[in-house]
Write a structure and sequence with these properties.
By secondary structure, the chain is an all-alpha fold. It has helices at residues 2-41, 44-47, 57-79, 86-111, 115-139, 141-146, 148-167.
């Protein structure tokens, strides 16, 4: 009985550590992206022509925070899924690739002020989110579903990026 209790406690502690690590990594990437974004919002970004559907600036931080938390939980669910072998490694590697593409978009769009390059990146990001969700669904359907709002937001962001590029290319 004690051994069972100890195993359960160790399993719960391991899961808590995995979740914390997933949150630290994803929110860390979000924070790193904000280091490029925040300084540009009131300066360069404010000077751009934007489409009528551009949300107010204050919307982006809470939306992205919720999305990063959902992404972290999705990665955690896959990490703790009972499956073993290559699928889990491939799925988590895909997750990390899309996370890096996410960060790269902030660098390209806000840091380097290159909306055209950012548009190429966000298309690759969108494709990588689809690949990640496809891999996640094999291991955890809830994990894949947690990526759907993220995919929707990135779709919107791609359209917004495209329109900003079009409106400012004159």
């Amino acid at each position: 009985m004690r051994l069972l209790s100890l195993r359960l406690i160790m399993r719960v502690l391991t899961d808590i550590l995995k979740l914390i690590l997933c949150l630290v990594i994803t929110l860390g990437v979000g924070f790193a992206g904000s280091l490029y974004t925040a300084p540009a919002i009131r300066t360069w970004y404010a000077t751009l022509h934007k489409p009528s559907f551009n949300p107010p600036n204050w919307v982006f931080m809470p939306v992205w925070t919720v999305l990063y938390i959902m992404m972290a939980v999705a990665a955690f669910l896959v990490w703790r899924a009972p499956a073993t072998g290559r699928w889990k490694v491939v799925a988590l590697a895909a997750f990390l690739v899309q996370l890096l593409l996410n960060l790269l978009w902030s660098l390209l769009f806000f840091g380097l002020r290159q909306p055209a390059y950012a548009l190429v990146d966000i298309v690759l990001l969108w494709l990588m989110i689809v690949v990640t969700a496809f891999l996640f669904v094999k291991l955890s359907r809830p994990a894949a579903l947690l990526l759907v709002p993220y995919l929707a937001w990135v779709t919107f962001a791609a359209v917004l990026n495209s329109e900003i590029l079009r409106l400012n290319s004159r």
